[in-house]
Amino acid sequence: MGWDELERTVAGCTACGLCKARTNTVFGVGSRDSQWMLIGEAPGAEEDLRGEPFVGQAGRLLDSILAAAGLGRAATGASAVYIANVVKCRPPANRNPEPDEVVRCEPFLRRQIMLLAPRVIVVMGRVAAQAVLGTDASIASLRGHAHRIDVAGASVPVIVTYHPAYLLRNLADKAKVWADMCLAREVFDRTQPRAH
Fold it and tell me: Among 47, 61, 75, 173, which has the highest number of CB atoms less than 10 A from its own CB?
């Protein structure tokens, strides 16, 4: 299944109750040739209205972090990022996605990862980290080093960091996120690009 068919499948998904209240599915944004993939948890209210991830206040903070790291969702080449969420529909009242909702959306995210074949993945937030890495470990214990997942027979590094929405409430942890992004850059620079 290619990008367009996957996006249509996500748009028509009714696998869990989140579809009942959504305005839009939030598939992903950025270059489909990107070597960087960022994965968040779930869309918020503004994302649901626009059908694009990270467009609210947390998205503006994320864009600032990316710009400081020399990256961007509108960038090209090695500076381009592709951004998606674990869950493609907004949970009510911006709650965290339930485990069954994550499980129902997981095949979509896995296919996005396979199609993109990134050199590095940065997961933002506990839900994203646990879903992508298949663990129940805390974000604090997962930060600070590269993990690896198998993507079509290749070992892809995964860096864990805090979600930008968390940073809006806990500004003291911005330095930790910057350290995580620096680690991601180091890992990216050491990782050979994959042929698409």
Answer: 47
Report residue 187 as tokens: 């890992």
d(CA 164, CA 78): 22
Distance CA 90, CA 18 (A): 7
The sheet with strand 120-124 has its strands ordered as 29-30, 81-85, 36-40, 120-124, 154-161, 147-151
| Residue carrying the six token digits 């206040």 | 57
Strand partners, 84: 39
Domains within the chain, CATH numbers bracketed: 3-190 (3.40.470.10)
pLDDT in tens, 182-191: 999 999 999 8
The three-point CA angle 134-141-168 to 5° equals: 95
From the list 181, 196, 192, the residue with the least C-alpha distance to 68 is 181
The CA distance from 162 to 128, in Å, is 10
- Which residue(s) pair with 150 in the sheet? 155
Query: What confidence tens digit (pLDDT) does each residue in 82-103 have?
Result: 999 999 999 998 899 999 999 9
Question: Does the reported pTM lie above 0.90?
Answer: yes
Q: What are the DSSP E strand ranges found in the chain? A: 29-30, 36-40, 81-85, 120-124, 147-151, 154-161
Phi, psi of 24 (to 5 degrees): -140, 150
